[in-house]
Specification:
The protein has a two-stranded antiparallel ribbon with strand order 1-2. The chain has 17 helices and two strands. It has 363 residues and is mainly alpha-helical. It has three domains: 95 residues; 96 residues, no CATH class; 99 residues, no CATH class.
Length: 363
């Protein structure tokens, strides 16, 4: 009797263990995906595979020294955009997929940190594809030049020395936003925009004319800078001024930003955050008309963009670009636009750090 009881107890324990294992296995099974979630996962998987494929294709072409297609960076860029967009759609559908922070400062809902090496390869390919031409005229002090020119232009526009320094910092921000701090580069996505501030030929000419008009004031305030300018003008001669770092930056700032420097005191009061200030001047590059209208409105942050055309310009420049929710927006206030410019944040932080470094060296 005792033996039978013991055997029954053993069987009961064994059965309990089996049941516990079955329950554990059931709990370990991920829940079935909904149709929407499965589609989002499939879209991301395809976008990631396509991104890897175009990276590998461009790398093979470059390593084999094959002729690249016209605008060789465009397909690579669009593949990267698709990866970020589909990942945002995936994390919208499956919030648990939002992972750890990444080295690029992209919000984790938009970017899986596991693919950081792919973005590093992306940057390496672009560095090759849009390297400066052989005849580009470099500066040994590219960052100092940008800050110095921005400051000098702002002084000539009537700002005091302290406020003019803010224009120098903002000018560095534009340089980093346009080229990530690389001078004289080409453009793997455009046959129009080139050089240190990524200007077209008409913009470059416009900036050059405006500089000629203001140069006497600059010379009176900073004769040494005017002498450097004469030297760079002689150096570039009849060549493309977009491929001389000094003249490219000078002309780019004069074309798009110089007039707005005069409004810096009001902009600084309205937007005390230094990164926001840089974003305003970057928007002058992207959507100049609406940005100026918003500044004149008396309530910049609340001013709303409703034009489909302008919203399209923003999307073409990585603002409201990623994911179905962002792309479905039909309007946005400038506060929402500034917040959506998160892809520029790391560039502007680099510019701010570089400006602090320059000022410390000067002291």
């Amino acid at each position: 009797m005792a033996a039978r009881t013991a055997l029954t107890a053993i069987r009961a324990v064994a059965l309990a263990v089996v049941l516990l294992n079955l329950v554990g296995a059931a709990r370990a099974e991920p829940p079935a995906l909904t149709k929407e979630q499965a589609e989002a996962q499939a879209a991301y998987d395809k976008a990631l595979a396509d991104f890897k494929a175009i990276l590998a294709q461009r790398r093979a072409q470059i390593d084999a020294k094959k002729k690249l297609p016209n605008l060789p960076g465009q397909a690579v860029y669009l593949a990267r955009i698709k990866v970020i967009s589909t990942y945002k759609d995936l994390t919208d559908a499956l919030p648990e997929r939002i992972g750890r922070p990444n080295k690029f400062g992209v919000p984790p809902a938009y970017f899986d940190a596991d693919i950081e090496p792919l973005i590093e390869e992306y940057a390496a390919l672009f560095k090759i594809m849009q390297a400066p031409p052989a005849n580009a005229q470099v500066s040994q002090t590219p960052f100092e030049d940008v800050a110095r020119l921005g400051t000098a232009i702002a002084r000539a526009k009537g700002l005091d020395a302290k406020t003019a320094e803010v224009a120098g910092r903002i000018s560095l921000g534009i340089f980093f936003a346009e080229t990530n701090g690389n001078q004289n580069i080409g453009n793997a996505r455009s046959n129009t925009y080139k050089g240190s501030l990524q200007t077209g030929t008409s913009e470059d000419r416009s900036g050059r004319r405006k500089w000629a008009a203001i140069k006497p004031k600059v010379a009176a305030l900073d004769p040494e800078l005017a002498a450097r300018d004469d030297k760079e003008e002689a150096r570039v001669g009849k060549g493309d001024q977009r491929y001389n770092h000094w003249t490219a930056v000078r002309n780019g700032l004069m074309n798009a930003h110089a007039d707005l420097f005069a409004q810096l005191p009001e902009i600084m009061q309205m937007l005390p955050n230094e990164i926001d200030q840089m974003k305003v001047f970057q928007l002058i590059q992207l959507i100049p008309g609406p940005t100026r209208e918003a500044l004149r409105s008396g309530n910049f942050e609340a001013y709303r963009i409703t034009s489909p055309k302008i919203m399209g310009y923003l999307r073409n420049n990585s603002i409201f670009t990623f994911g179905k929710v962002d792309r479905a927006r039909k309007s946005a206030t400038f506060r929402e636009i500034l917040d959506a410019m998160w892809l520029f944040d790391s560039k502007f932080e680099k510019a701010r750090a570089k400006f602090t470094e320059i000022k410390a060296a000067q002291r």
